[in-house]
């Protein structure tokens, strides 16, 4: 199989490239190496090329690397030549700084996906795995006195008063549960909206072309090579970046937010399992899959464990909040286990032990 990985020089994309090469696939990468993600260095490799081919990034690996933006239709057509399947990872990630980021999110994620899908339709490529996110759900799944519940967005007044946990309409406390793929979708920030739009664009492509698409809803991914010192990175990277600077990890709210932290190697194996699935399911199929460890931990747990393993100062619980954040969201990955034959292999303990001292990506350029 010849596989195109868009965003293949990124944190998750690079893990997918490594996994695909390890099982003998031919791999092509399309990546713009944008400065706000990569800075001037990616995984320690000097980027000395300025032309489309030859950045130097994959010189030591059997990878056909094309440097360019997924929004460039001509480059996408070139990248798709001779390809059997596509793994679409290229995207602007994270909650963002403020609403002024919205045009870049929409252009990078949704326009980029539309250009890629149009190119795939033209090239006759019918197998796609696309990176989605847990953020499409909004808040996670909860249960109240009357059964399953999905709370409304938290208010500034409640957050400022330290009332972080959601309640139902009658003021009853809610108990968080694992969320499944058929739950109602409720994206609550610009990034989340673009990820849902990517899924919907891919579904439309599948229906119109007879293609098959697996949308992988990543939960909190961590691992070696995460970006550092950027507001767009995940919380694990923000904590590690603080530790690298000799500062305490700063934990928002009260640190009791429940998350599912999944290792990047497990995310890569999920992508390969999903690619295999696209080869055997019926045409015009679009299916979403949660990709999580199935092991619930709090953000405070993460900060404490990383700090302890790195020999750093204790975390600081700040009580600060971000309005676009949700309180609890944890994954049920039962569908991926049953239909993709995939299961995570890296435990929280082992993954954190490695991640606590693993190298991070060089600081990005603002």
Notes on the structure:
With 366 residues, this protein is of the alpha/beta class. Helices cover 34% and strands 20% of the residues. The protein contains eleven helices and 18 strands. It has a seven-stranded parallel β-sheet with strand order 5-2-1-6-7-11-15, sandwiched between helices. Strands 9-8-10-18 form a four-stranded mixed β-sheet, with no helix packed on it. α1 (11-22) packs across α8 and α3 (73-80) crosses α4 (102-123). The longest helix is centred in the first third of the chain and has 22 residues, at 102-123.
Largest β-sheet summary: 7 strands, parallel
Taking pLDDT < 50 over at least 5 consecutive residues as the criterion, the unreliable ranges are: 42-55
Question: What's the assembly state of these chains?
Answer: single chain
What best-fitting shape do the alpha-carbon axes yield? globular
Describe this structure in a few short sentences.
With 366 residues, the protein is of the alpha/beta class.
Write the layout of secondary structure elements.
Elements: E1 2-6, H1 11-22, E2 26-31, H2 35-38, E3 41-42, E4 45-46, E5 63-67, H3 73-80, E6 85-88, H4 102-123, E7 127-133, E8 141-144, E9 147-149, H5 156-160, E10 175-179, H6 190-209, E11 212-218, E12 220-222, H7 235-244, E13 250-251, E14 258-263, H8 264-278, E15 285-291, E16 296-298, H9 299-310, E17 316-317, E18 330-331, H10 334-340, H11 348-355
Parallel strand pairs: 1-2, 1-6, 2-5, 6-7, 7-11, 10-18, 11-15, 12-14, 13-17
Antiparallel strand pairs: 3-4, 8-9, 8-10, 14-16
């Amino acid at each position: 199989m010849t596989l195109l990985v868009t965003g293949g020089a990124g944190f998750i994309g690079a893990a997918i490239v490594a996994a695909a090469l390890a099982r003998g696939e031919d791999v092509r990468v399309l990546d713009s190496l944008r400065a706000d993600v990569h800075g001037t260095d990616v995984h320690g490799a000097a980027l000395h090329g300025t032309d489309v081919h030859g950045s130097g990034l994959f010189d030591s690996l059997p990878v056909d690397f094309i440097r360019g933006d997924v929004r460039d239709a001509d480059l996408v057509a070139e990248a798709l030549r001779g390809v059997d399947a596509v793994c679409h990872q290229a995207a602007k990630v994270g909650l963002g700084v403020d609403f002024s980021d919205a045009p870049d999110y929409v252009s990078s994620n949704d326009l980029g996906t539309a250009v890629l899908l149009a190119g795939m339709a033209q090239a006759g490529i019918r197998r796609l795995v696309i990176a989605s996110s847990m953020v499409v759900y909004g808040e996670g799944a909860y249960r109240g006195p009357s059964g399953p519940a999905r709370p409304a967005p938290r208010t500034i007044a409640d957050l400022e008063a330290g009332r972080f946990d959601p309640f139902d309409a009658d003021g009853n406390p809610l108990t968080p549960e694992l969320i499944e793929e058929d739950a109602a979708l409720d994206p609550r920030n610009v990034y989340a909206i673009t990820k849902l739009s990517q899924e919907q664009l891919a579904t439309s492509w599948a229906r119109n072309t007879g293609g098959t698409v697996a949308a992988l809803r990543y939960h909190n991914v961590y691992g070696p090579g995460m970006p550092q010192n950027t507001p767009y990175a995940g919380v694990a990277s923000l904590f590690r970046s603080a530790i690298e600077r000799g500062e305490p990890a700063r934990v928002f709210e009260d640190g009791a937010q429940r998350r599912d932290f999944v290792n990047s190697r497990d995310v890569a194996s999920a992508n390969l399992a999903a690619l295999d699935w696209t080869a055997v399911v019926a045409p015009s199929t679009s299916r979403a899959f949660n990709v999580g460890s199935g092991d619930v931990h709090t953000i405070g747990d993460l900060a404490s464990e990383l700090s302890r393993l790195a020999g750093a100062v204790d975390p600081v619980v700040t009580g600060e909040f971000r309005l676009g954040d949700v309180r609890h969201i944890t994954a049920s990955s039962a569908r991926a286990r049953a239909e993709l034959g995939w299961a995570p292999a890296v435990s929280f303990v082992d993954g954190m032990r490695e991640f606590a001292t693993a190298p991070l990506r060089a600081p990005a350029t603002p």
